Structure formats: structure tokens, C-alpha cells
Amino acid sequence: MRPTSGQKTFRRKTKKPTSNRPANPKLVLLNKPYGVLTQFSSGDADEDTLKQYVPFNDVYPAGRLDKDSEGLLLLTNDGSLQHKISHPKHKLPKTYWVQVEGIPDENALKQLREGVELADGMTLPAEAFLMPEPEHIWPRNPPIRERKSVPDSWICLIIREGKNRQVRRMTAAVGHPTLRLIRAAIGPWRLAGLAPGQWREVPPVW
Fold it and tell me: Of 14, 24, 79, 198, which has the maximum CB count within 10 A?
């Protein structure tokens, strides 16, 4: 029925979709071994990539983990989930077990907690404390360099940002270079139960 003169017409407004999420969102937890690139291909045939460990061709990393770092890497086929995990504005906590040269004193730990001045700016406040060597830790291949005259120790460092090689630069800035770096958790996801190179699929929480 057409409106008569003077009558207003009303059209139902439709909401535009906020994202094109896949019908079957996938989230994979991987314990990335030392020396593996956080990508599925490389120009160098001798370099290890995620392709050797993850049997899916539709997922991609949510965030970075350097070649010389180990531990938890999240992969997903859901762009919205990837953004929520990796974008700095969400400040998702990332937990690292860090083997460092020397034994940090309370002043060094305080600097890590309050923020460290790096070349690209001050880091956000973090959580930092000494911890015993993680239980059931796997041997690294190759082993870390050891100096008989200098002891080493482990700290737990929890940050909520992702500057390039941030943890290594933070510990170096307070006088304790990183010898070994393992990411143990990202937000609610934990490394527990995964040996190097192992993965498991979990239900996405968003």
C-alpha cells in the first residue's frame, strides 16, 4: 500500500555485519620449539617453519614469537579472534619464563615492574619476580651458553604489550641478559601439557 501525501515512510534499518567470522572458528595452541620461524614458509629450505608442526593450512599466528624463543604460540582462522589476542589495545597478559644471566636484586625487579626505558619508549608496568627453574622443563637444543664465573636464575615476567624483542631488551636494560625465553601463557591459555612441537586445538572463548 503506497503512502498518501503527507505521510512519512519508515524503512527498517539493517545492521551491517561486524565481522566475517568463519563458520567453524579454530584455535590451536602450539609449543613452538627453539629455532622455528613463526611462519609457514621460508626462502631458506634449511629453516624450520610452522609447516613442520601444524597440520592445518587455514590458520595463522595470533602474534609473534621470535625464532630464538620457545613456548606458547596461538594460531587461528578467525580474524576477529586474532585481533583480540594480538592487538595491543586489548592488553592481554603474556607470561614468560626467563632464564637470565646473574641473579636480579629487588632494585632490578622494581625497574621491570615500574617500566624500563627502551629505544622505542618506556615499557608499561609489568609483573616480575624470581622463580625456581620450571618443573619438567625440556632441554634446549642447542643448550644455552654458560659462564662458570656467573650464575644464572629464572624470573617470571608478565607484560601486556608487544614491542619487538621486548623481554630480552627489558632484562638487558636492568643488567641481566636473557639466556633462554619461554612463553608460558597468553591470557587464559596455558602451555601446560605440551612438549616442544606438540599442539592441541581448543574451543575459542570469544
Answer: 79
166, amino acid identity: Q
Q: Show the cell assigned to 131.
A: 622463580
Buried b (16+ CB within 10 A) or exposed e, 13-23: eeeeeeeeeee
pTM of the model: 0.87
Which one of 48, 66, 68, 152 is the catalytic residue?
A: 66
Give the three-class secondary structure for 160. coil
149, with CB counted inside 10 A (0-12, 13-18, 19+), is exposed
- Contact present, 135 and 73 (Cβ < 8 Å): no
Residue 66 known to be catalytic = yes
How far is the CA of 160 from the CAs of 87, 91, 121, 132, in angstroms? 10, 5, 15, 23
Give per-residue pLDDT as tens, 35-69: 999 999 887 878 999 999 999 989 999 999 999 99
